[in-house]
Design brief:
The protein is an alpha+beta fold. It has 2 domains: 63 residues, no CATH class; 77 residues, no CATH class. It is built from 5 helices and 4 strands, in the order ββααααβαβ. This is DNA helicase. InterPro entries: P-loop_NTPase, PIF1_helicase.
Length: 175
């Protein structure tokens, strides 16, 4: 079973060890798609929005077919937002470089000195109790989203990716 909204953000391409961009495609662009997906089922009922005009505007946006009326209606929704808790919205960026720039700018805007943390990785055993070689460990680490070195400040808000932290208390929200 495959599920997802193929009108969402496109896959973000990775870069190989040599820095060359590796092509990334949507699942439905794969050569195997038609062999694997015999009967696609398209869900059409919208649950989060009740007003049909707004649903139609969102669908037009998803397919890149916004009319002038929809653009004006979306524009009329723009307003300054105040966050009483001081926590702003999560921001999404299309590339890791843009994420890094935004994170660095936010870190620089916070008071106090930053503390440098560097990961120390040592080979161990996999889930089948097989010894993991140093080379295998290095290849695995190259594919991780986590950075080798990070700088943090005491007041910095963090976003944890629970699927990377399943062994950690923080992933279970017990901190």
């Amino acid at each position: 079973v495959l599920s997802g909204d193929f009108c969402q953000l496109p896959p973000v391409p990775d870069r190989g060890k040599d820095g060359i961009q590796i092509a990334s495609t949507f699942a439905f662009e794969a050569e195997s798609w038609n062999r694997c997906i015999k009967r696609p089922i398209v869900l059409t009922r919208v649950f989060r929005q009740k007003e049909q005009k707004f649903v139609d505007m969102l669908n037009a946006m998803r397919f890149g077919k916004l009319g002038a009326d929809s653009i004006q209606a979306f524009g009329s929704l723009s307003r300054p937002v105040k966050y009483s808790d001081g926590i702003g919205p999560t921001q999404l960026y299309p590339t890791r470089a843009e994420v890094d720039r935004a994170n660095q700018a936010r870190l620089n805007s916070l008071p106090g000195d930053s503390i440098r943390y560097e990961a120390t990785d040592t080979p161990g055993r996999d889930s089948n109790d097989n010894l993991v070689s140093l080379e295998s460990m290095k290849r695995l680490l190259e594919r991780l989203v986590a950075q080798q070195v990070i700088h943090l400040k005491v007041v910095l808000l963090l976003l944890f990716a629970p699927h990377y932290l399943t062994h950690c208390r923080l992933a279970r929200k017990s901190c």
